[in-house]
Every structure is written in C-alpha cells, then in structure tokens.
Amino acid sequence: MTHSFESIAPLLEGQAIELPSWAFGNSGTRFKVFATPGTPRTVEEKITDAAKVNELTGLAPTVALHIPWDKVDDYAALSAFAQDKGVKLGTINSNTFQDDIYKFGSLTHVDKAVRQKAIDHHFECIDIMNATGSRDLKIWLADGTNYPGQGDLRGRQDRLAESLATIYERIGENQRLVLEYKFFEPAFYHTDVPDWGTSYAQVSALGERATVCLDTGHHAPGTNIEFIVMQLLRLGKLGSFDFNSRFYADDDLIVGAADPFQLFRIIFEVVRGGGYGSDSDVAFMLDQCHNVEDKIPGQIRSVLNVQEMTARALLVDRDALLAAEKAGDVLTANAVLMDAFYTDVRPALAGWRESRGLPADPMAAYAASGYQAQIAADRVGGQQAGWGA
Amino acid sequence: MTHSFESIAPLLEGQAIELPSWAFGNSGTRFKVFATPGTPRTVEEKITDAAKVNELTGLAPTVALHIPWDKVDDYAALSAFAQDKGVKLGTINSNTFQDDIYKFGSLTHVDKAVRQKAIDHHFECIDIMNATGSRDLKIWLADGTNYPGQGDLRGRQDRLAESLATIYERIGENQRLVLEYKFFEPAFYHTDVPDWGTSYAQVSALGERATVCLDTGHHAPGTNIEFIVMQLLRLGKLGSFDFNSRFYADDDLIVGAADPFQLFRIIFEVVRGGGYGSDSDVAFMLDQCHNVEDKIPGQIRSVLNVQEMTARALLVDRDALLAAEKAGDVLTANAVLMDAFYTDVRPALAGWRESRGLPADPMAAYAASGYQAQIAADRVGGQQAGWGA
Amino acid sequence: MTHSFESIAPLLEGQAIELPSWAFGNSGTRFKVFATPGTPRTVEEKITDAAKVNELTGLAPTVALHIPWDKVDDYAALSAFAQDKGVKLGTINSNTFQDDIYKFGSLTHVDKAVRQKAIDHHFECIDIMNATGSRDLKIWLADGTNYPGQGDLRGRQDRLAESLATIYERIGENQRLVLEYKFFEPAFYHTDVPDWGTSYAQVSALGERATVCLDTGHHAPGTNIEFIVMQLLRLGKLGSFDFNSRFYADDDLIVGAADPFQLFRIIFEVVRGGGYGSDSDVAFMLDQCHNVEDKIPGQIRSVLNVQEMTARALLVDRDALLAAEKAGDVLTANAVLMDAFYTDVRPALAGWRESRGLPADPMAAYAASGYQAQIAADRVGGQQAGWGA
Amino acid sequence: MTHSFESIAPLLEGQAIELPSWAFGNSGTRFKVFATPGTPRTVEEKITDAAKVNELTGLAPTVALHIPWDKVDDYAALSAFAQDKGVKLGTINSNTFQDDIYKFGSLTHVDKAVRQKAIDHHFECIDIMNATGSRDLKIWLADGTNYPGQGDLRGRQDRLAESLATIYERIGENQRLVLEYKFFEPAFYHTDVPDWGTSYAQVSALGERATVCLDTGHHAPGTNIEFIVMQLLRLGKLGSFDFNSRFYADDDLIVGAADPFQLFRIIFEVVRGGGYGSDSDVAFMLDQCHNVEDKIPGQIRSVLNVQEMTARALLVDRDALLAAEKAGDVLTANAVLMDAFYTDVRPALAGWRESRGLPADPMAAYAASGYQAQIAADRVGGQQAGWGA
C-alpha cells in the first residue's frame, strides 16, 4: 500500500536536524549527574563533537548554542571554527533560570528590575545572533510558581506579554522569536507558558516573526501531539521542534526511543501539513540529555531515528488514506498508515547513504573510528561542560 | 488574614448557576444505566425538578435544554411553564452524536451532506433559542477518530471552521455561540476540539459573539485549570463553565466532590479575572451525571458547593496576596489563600439564606419536603428520561 | 543483531489467542452504540464469526463466553456447535454489573444477600464451565464507589476476600479462578480491584489455582506494563492477558493499534519470563470493542498483530542483550531490542502461513470471501447482540 | 454530623511526625538549586533547626538521618547533642544513588561487586542504627533504567530480592527494614521498585520486620492513594509514610499544599485502619524539598497541616458513615465525610496548643522569634548542606 523508497528518496535530500551543544555536556537529574570521559570542556569541543555527528550522517549541519553556557568573546571566530569543522552555528537559546535573581521569575517577575535584566539578556542573545548569523532566538521560560497564591497568574501573563514585546522589537527582519511551552518543571504548581495555546496567544500578539516551539516531551499525559502539530501548521505558527522522547515527564530521552509510533505520527502530520521540505521554515532540532548513554553516538542514533521515521512518513500513500476515509473504511485507513510504519526502511537508507559517500551504518562507523577513545585520552583536566557550566 | 463574611456577603446576591435538564434524567456508563423511581419522563418534569432546586437554594434560576432530548412542539408554552415554576429556559445544547449518520463525525465530516445535516440541526437550535429567548448556543462536539489514519486531522479542522462560520452567521445580535472542548471521549485517538487552544483559535476566527466553554472535567491529568480560566478571561473569550468534578476521566461527578481545593482555585481566578458578578457575562452551569446518587439533592448539593466556594474565594485578601508576592514570601502568600479556603463559611451562609427567606439547610429542607416520595409515587409508567431519550 | 525468522518459526506453531464472543456484538460509549449490518443475534452466530477468524488465521481456536450474555439452555450442544465450526469454548466470564441489585457492589456489597446472589452467579458459571470443559473462570469486578465516604474500603476488601474464597472452593482441580484488575470505570472514586497488587494479594490468599488477569488497558497513565508482566510471572501468578490498546482510558481498541512498541515490550517480557509456549499456561485473550470499525476483520487484524509482535519478540538476541547490559553499553542494548522491533516480519509470516495452508493475507482473504456481505444479507431482523443483550 | 473537638482532642496527644534532616538543607531541580541565608552547614545545625520545629509545635520529636549526607564520627555524641536540643535521632535512610559506581544500579546491579558495595553500605547504616538506637532502616532505591533493553527486568528483581535478604538478616530484633516504592525518577523507563505491589511482594518474602514505606508523591496520575493505605494496613505491611504533596511528578511540596482533601482521605484511612495512635507502629515522616520557600517555617507549616488534617479525620462520625452506606445513601455518606473536612479545626487547635504550653500560632511564633535572622547572621562561611553534601 505504500510508495516505493525510490519514489520518496529525493525528498530525503537536504533534511537537516540541528544539534544542541548541551547534549554533548554532562547532564542528569536532581539526584546525580554522572560524568563521562571525553566530555567537552569548551564550546569548541562541543562543536567538534557535533561536527562528527554531521560528518557521519550528513543530517546535522548546524549547532544550537545556549547562552551563557556557550558564551565566548569572539563569535565571528566561533563561527569560523564551526565552518572549519563543517557545520554552522544555529539557534541561540536564552537562559533566565540559573541566576539567583530569577528565583521567582524572569520575564514575568513582579519586579521591573528583574524583568529588565531578563530582557537585557535577550538583547545580548540577539547581539550574538547578529554576530553568528543565527535566524532563531529560542525562549524557553522556567518561570512559574510552586504554591497556589505565590504569584498572580494574570499579572505574570500580562508582564510576559510586555517583556516579549520589548524583545520582539529588537528581532531583525530575517530573524524569529520562537517561544517554547512546557507543561511543568522546574515549577510545580503553575508554569507561565504551559501549553501551546498560551504560546500561540502570546506569539500571535507579537507578529509574524514570532512562532511556537513544540518540544515533544512537554505535554500532559495522553496528549495527542500530532494534533497540535497539525493545528500550529494550520495557524501558520509552528516555528520549530525540540525532539526527544519521554515515558513520564520531560525525560529528554533519545527521540523515538519511548514511542516510535508517536514519532511517526508526528512527522507524518508535519509532512501532511507542509512543514517538511525546502519550502518550509519549520526547524527540526534535538533537545536531549544523555544521562547514562554515550553522548555522541546518542546524537547519531537520534538523527538517524528522525531520518528513518521521516522516510516511513513519506512512504504513506495519502491518496489511499483519503479514499479509505471517504469510504468510512477505518481498518483500511489504519492499515495504510501502519503499512508505512512497519516497512523496514533501514536497508534502503543504508544504500542511500553509501551512494552519497556516507557510511552505510553511522553507528558502526563511529564505533570503529576510534574517536571516543581519542577524546577520552585527550580531554583530561579542565572542567567538563554541564548545565551549570 | 481573610475578609469578613459580612464584607463579602453583598457579592453573593444574584449568583446564578444554570442547571442542565439532563441531570434529572437517568445516566450511567457504557456498562449500565441504573434507573431510579421518580425520574422525569418529560421535559416538563425535568423543569419541575430544576425549579425545586431553585426554590430551596435561590441559586438556579435557569434550566439548560438539550436538543433533541428536550424537543417540544411549543417552546413558548414551555417557557411559560418554566416561568410558572419560577425558572427560565437557558442555554440550548446541540447534539450531533446520536444519529447513525454521525458515526464518523458531524460538523467535521468528510461528506458535505452530513455536515449540512449537522449545520441544519444547529439552525434548528437557533430557532429554538429565538423562541425561548435563550442567549447561548452551546456546541459540544463528539467528533473525532479512534484510530490513527482514520481521518485527515487538518481536513477535519478546516471543515469545522467552515461549519462553525455558517452557524455563526445565523447567531443573533444578542446571542452567543459557545464552543466546548474536551480532551477525549467518545473518540479515543483524536478529538476535533480537544483543548482550549483549539476552541480559542476557532472562536477567535468567528467573531466577538463566539466564546469558549470550559468544562472542568475535560482536561488531561495534571492540567492547571485555573490557569486556563485566567488566560481565557485575559483574552476575553471565556463564555461559560460546565461545572462538575472528576478523579480520572470525564466522571461528571458533583462539582467540588473530587478536589474541593481545585474548585476554590478556579473560582478564585474567576473572581480575580473579573469573571464573577453582574458586570460579567461568564455563565456558570452544571454538567453532571448522578449515576448512583439521588438526582435532585445531587443538584442541590452542587449549587451549594459552588456558592460555598465562591464565598471562600471572595474572602481572599488580594492586597495581602500581592504584598506577599512582592516580598517573595511564598509561605505567607500561600497562607493567605489557604486561610480563606479553610474558613468554614457554612454557618454564615445558613444565616444569610434564612435572612432571604430560604431554608438554612436546603439539603435538609429537601429531605423533609416529601418531594422525592411524591414524585416516586406520581411518576409511574412512561419512559424515564435518559441520554438516549 | 537479531535471530533469523527461520530459527524462531517453530516457536510460532501452536500460538493461540482466545476471542471474546462479545467482540462480535455491538458496543460503544455512554453516548452512543452504533449498530452494523450483519451483527450476530445469537451466541451461535458469534461463534460462527469467531470460527471465521480462526479459519483464516489459524490463531484463534477458542471462544470466551460472557454470562449471561451468552446463556443457552444446552451447553453441550453449544460445545458441539463450536466444534463443528472448528473452535472450542474457552474462558467463562462472569457479569455482576448489570443487575439493578448490584448498583452498590456485588462480591463486596455491604448486604450479605447481594453478595450471595453474586456468589451464586459464579457458581452458575462454574456449572457452565463443567458443561463446556472450560478451564478458566474470569472475574472482572465493576465494584467500586463514586464518592469518598460512599463505602468502607476496608470492609469491602474483606468481604471481597470472603466471597472469592467461597467461589474458589467450588473451582475444580483442573480449573482456575482468574481475577482481573482495573484502574477505574465504571466506578470513579475507587475500584475494589484497581491494581495488580490487590489482585495478587487476593489470589495469593486463595491458593494455587487462583491467578491474575492483566488487561493491557487497565492501568494508570505512564504505567510500565511489561514490568508487571515480569513481576507476575516471577511470582507465578500471571494467569491470562486481556489484550487491547488504549490512548487514554480503557479504550478497548485493537491490540497494538495505539502503541505497537509497548505491545512488543510486553510480549518480549512474556517470552523472557517463560510465559509463552507450550510449557506455559498463561492464556492470551482479546478483550476489545469494535465501535466504529468492522468487527470480524477487527478481530483478524488483532490476532495478526499479536502474532507479528510475537515473531518480533522472538527475534531478539537475548545473549547480545545480556552482554551489552554487562558491558554497561546502553545504546547497544537498546539497539538489540529495536533491531527486532523494526524488522519487517510480515513477508516471512505470509510465507509461513501459506506453507500451512492458510491465506498469506488473512485480511485480504476475508475481504475477498464475501462473508461480510453474506451475513449482512442473512442476519436481518432479530435483536443484534450487544453489551445489554 | 461530626464528633466534637473535645471528644477527639485526647487522640491528638502524642502525635509524632518525623522530620528529615535534608529538608533543612538546600534543594532544587536539575535546572537550579537556590541557596538561602542561614542554611545549615552541618548535621548539628540541621538538628538544631529541627528541634526548633518541635519546640514550637510539639509534633516533631525525632529527626531522620540520611547517610552519607549526615555521616559523623561519633553517633553517640550526635544522639546526645540531639537529646540536648530536645529531640531524638530517628530513621536511618540509605543512599545508593550518588556514587559513580551506581550509574547502572546498586542492589540490583548486574555486577556482584557493585551489589556487595551497596549491601555493605546498608550494613554501615545498621551499625549507625545500633549506635543511635534507631528503629527503622529506610531503603529508597533509585535503581532503574532509561531505555528498553538496557536491563533484564527479571534478573534485576531477583538480585534485588537476594540483596534485600542479605541486608534483612542483619536487621536487629527491634529494628525494621522499610522499603519505599516510587513510580519514576531518577530512572525514566523502568524503576526496580515502582509500585506498592512490588514493595509488598519483596518485603513479604523477607519476614515480619520488613514493611512498606508509602511516599505520597510516588504514584501514577490518578492513583487512589488512600486505597493503598487501606490495603497495606489490611495486609499488615504499612511501615511508614513519607508525607509531601505534588501536582505532577514527585514535586516534594509541603504536605497538604496541593490537594488537602486527598491528605484528609489518606489520614482518614489511616485512622479507620488502625494505623494511628499509640497501638500502631506506622511511622509518620515528612519528605519534602523547600526549593523556593523558607525551610524551617516550611517544616512547621507541614507538621501543622498533618495535625489539622488528623483532627478533621478524627472528627468523622464513622457510625453515621456506616449507616449511610447500609442505606445506600450516597449523598449522606459523602456529606458525613465532607462535614468533617470543612470543619475549621484551627481555632480549637490553637487553644489546645496553648493549654499545653505551646504557641497558639507556631508560624507566627517562629516569625516573631528572631531565629531566622539569627541563623542568617551566624551561619556565614562554610558549605551549606544540600543533596550533594
């Protein structure tokens, strides 16, 4: 019932999945962060690792930075360094959750001085974007409260709108403000941007260059995420994806690891809604934590998972789907979808990679490369990168 | 820390909670509907029961109808009947989920003929509104799918927009279209209006007289409902509440029975956001199923729960809250809220009721009235009302 | 990394998945039950449909009965009828949730007379088992309460233990009592057997021939079901499966439709724990509702899903898994599992079926058979079977 | 409908809620740990703060230690120090989740050497118990995996049983091993002791002095926790409570802050099941994190919440409840419960406290005491205590 791999192969050209610099640093839970040999100490080492992922997969041409974790003195030099490694700098991610002043909020804080500090941080991020040539400023806000009564929900929302408007004014003509939403964590009672509806309402008030970032791990249990994908595409407000997977909360596991069928459905809605391909400006990114697994192959596995699932989603015969829907034939409609999902695209993709001068099996190629042993030997001393660094 | 009851008592005047006619009929689960003696056989008997609730509580001056369950030949006569009993007819609820033709959807159906039938049903509802003088047309849509692939999510959403626009055109100057959202059930894979964001996006496209209905039982586990209340009030799109409570899914239990503190927080946000009082047009309604408990006292208990919680919400010292927030004093802020919640307003409310010629204890008054025995004796034969009737 | 299909093919021989008679009748939600042409009116017609599933798949040699829905005067005759169609009668399911007397419970009811009636019903079921030669009495209990305070949780649990002990005494030497648990529905506040722990504690107190039934749709959101499978196998108390799938609550969708990877993990734990194959007495059953899809092909699809997933689970190279675990190599361990999951076993299974005289594609064979048109034409008049019948 | 406060007041005597030493140190999320002035640097300072809570409330006579966070050279001296401050040392909590060697598990680890190290740690804890005179060894196990395939669930469970048996052998005649369960975190795919059933099965295999610890924040969404309380009491295996509250995951908020009615129902089941009072050996403890609120008043608020809720639970007229249940009168049964819950016990408790020489309002007394300013001034320099210390 599905299309042939040959017929969809051209659509795989040019697929790009941005890597987060922080995925190469150490991460963990509130209980423990386990360190691993070879972990980067500098942003240059993170970029070098990211470039390795791109070298082996051809899928990850850009690296997202997180400020201040990836702050440097000379962004032009950093861009040049990246280019030298074969990648570019991508999205700039702001951080207003680690300074003591943000204990009770940042862009939503009841105190104007704190809000201004948070706004200034975003101005600094925009300056960096101008230096790096980055398109997107991504704002994930940790703001929220832990106890009912702690904050005036409405006051905070109004202040958020005001702060975002101030930041948005500074955004360049070819730049975008992308607002991420998250169900909960680190705040437990309420989060100031908890759902797509809030993010959508806020960015709609800003203007055309403000869009929503959908992190696949940031929803309530049972949420139909592909429905949100469809809706945001329909409303013209889907800016980017943070891909990862989760069983319970925001586990930040390897994308596709927890529920591969859900990933398939999500990407299928992206394709169906026009969010995939060179005509679309929807950005695909990873946002993951490799707490117990090796980080570089963890990223390789992740971009391959996205690629494989994209291939399966492209295989779906949408005409057959529509015909079955019109006939009220539920089982056939479902079978059309499942047929694509159950198709083993891996052998065809291996061949496709080889035909482009890439390793047929990037995981095996990495294991055979000696890179991991090399960085473990080389990167001795210094402070390994992590969320606090 | 709280205001005195006396200071907030005037604000309790005029509180009105609409009763659903169907709460007086039999209801149940897919496993079994238990019947009870005295259950109404006709819409007139339902209205009579609803009027009893209002007589004893002074809180329930209107009754919502559900079409076709409450269809009659002469709505003017029905209005007069209600008026005679001391109540008015309120919101008209449409039903596009029980006709065989709606198996795969109604306003979203892939077949134009089915959509037209569903639109026509809403036209009929508007005709009834014109006859009864009702302000609100409430649309809860059961549309959705059970299996991935069964429907084109985007196509359905676009058709929904088109259908709603057609209905909205027919809505009178002093009428409103209120669109309810629901997380899941009766559809299991996807629901066409699953969250407030979708309802908000749809009604925003329609115009000023289209708003959102928030049913307190229609959310994913863990959802912060009072945040949504705040947001919809902020966006000017909160039309009405369907009150009930739930432990797991859409249990439709007595409002306040499952999580009284949540009800308190919700009503507090209504008050804080300007959604309560004579200046606001936010409608308070019940939408409940009394599967195992007596229906009339179940409704009395429910409106009392809303009234008691409203009193507690009004007791909150909002200046003290704001001061604590500004001071970053989390424990005091929380204490201000909890103090109002833990205040036992019941004795004061009993006195307040008596001062208005109402029974101090409406539950006891009902039990003592002999009404239940009377209807059990009188209403013999005929077909008891239920969801299928 | 996986075994070859040839090496695991012998293990597919003899796989048996019991069909529920009620899956062939109409079902729905509290909102609506949609009827379909050709739906059985009698238990004989249900068995006939079930036999069709077995004829085309070779996977469904037995049919479970539900009492009183499938009550007949002569069970020996019914057994003969089934045998004639090529199947046998299997598990007997009791029903203590549709009689008015059970409004507040059955085996747990506070009134001894009601409990006795429920016990007597189970005695009747055991009589039927003796007549049909069935091994298993499956008890799913709808008992529970909707409101805190409504029932004494402890008293109900103690009475449940007493009732079960009385029933267990009547269970024959070669028979089993299988106690199903369910998170919620139809009761909303509490369910008397809500989790595996309760079922395990209750059956452990009874004796060796009492075991637990795990319905894959009866858990809280986020529950790791394969862990429970492992634990019950370890404790020697996994009696049977009710297979189905769900997105939110107890949706009773086609097994594998909502989360195929979860089904894979569950069956893999069954295999790893010794619960699969001729040495094991763990029973595989379906418990599904085909509300909007055709029922017979819905059942065919379901048993095929179980078979395909069993093949994938058998492909897993457990030695490689263990080696990776010992090496602390998370990515390789996960890859070993995923490799089996992503293997497309469908072509090999089609060939395997043909080599046994079965249709390569049972879904297509059913569609081509004309059976559906025939029963739609034949089964006119009478009362279609459903949950209330 | 409720009992009078006077009639239940005697039952409030002697209520004891153990405080966790770690609640006085800094805590946070994976994103940030905010420090506060006055935070203890040593276990002695933690005990001093805990003693302050007891001094003002009379409710917290013991302090739980966490090893190695609270390791000292001389436990006899530490006991004497505590006694001097007016409190005793209580439960000893082990920690096998912060050493690098435990990355892939501790008592369940596939490598015997790692398991032995974890067992030895528990032996050390028992030595400490012998020195401090503590009764309970509490084991909360972070063991689990993040990815399907990473671990052999069954092998881990069997090794857990073996490790626990080894530890249990060392437990003294008057000591207990208490095994805590937790739904998820820090492991995301599976946790080795995820639910009460697993903990129950494991401790049942050990013997009489092994029981279950129920942490109120460690359940799946929607879980009826009071049912588990009832069941564990019924089975004789409820050892202790870790009280806290949560909206989403294991938020570790102040007990009663998120859902006070749930806390009421839980304590009511404790009372109804015989788990409260001098005859019972069920231990009440707090396990909380005060991430954004002051820690000492956070603990005061917490023990007061438990006390207030206990008073309300004791007020319930259980005879009236039973009578309503027998009559099938759902609304009255629920009203009996709610009447106690809505009773404002705070004024009576204030008087009761005063009559015992305690401050009527411990929160106000703490604020007025100058203690917070004092410790902020005194505790300068050194390393503030936290989870990593």
UniProtKB/TrEMBL annotation, chains A, B, C, D:
The record's listing under Pfam families reads: AP_endonuc_2
Q: Report if keyword Metal-binding is assigned.
A: yes
Write down the EC number.
Answer: 5.3.1.14
- Protein's recorded name: L-rhamnose isomerase
- Please give the Gene Ontology molecular function terms for this protein: L-rhamnose isomerase activity
Outline the extent of the Xylose isomerase-like TIM barrel domain: 73-224
Q: Which NCBIfam families match?
A: RhaI_grampos
What lineage is this protein's organism placed in?
Bacteria, Bacillati, Actinomycetota, Actinomycetes, Micrococcales
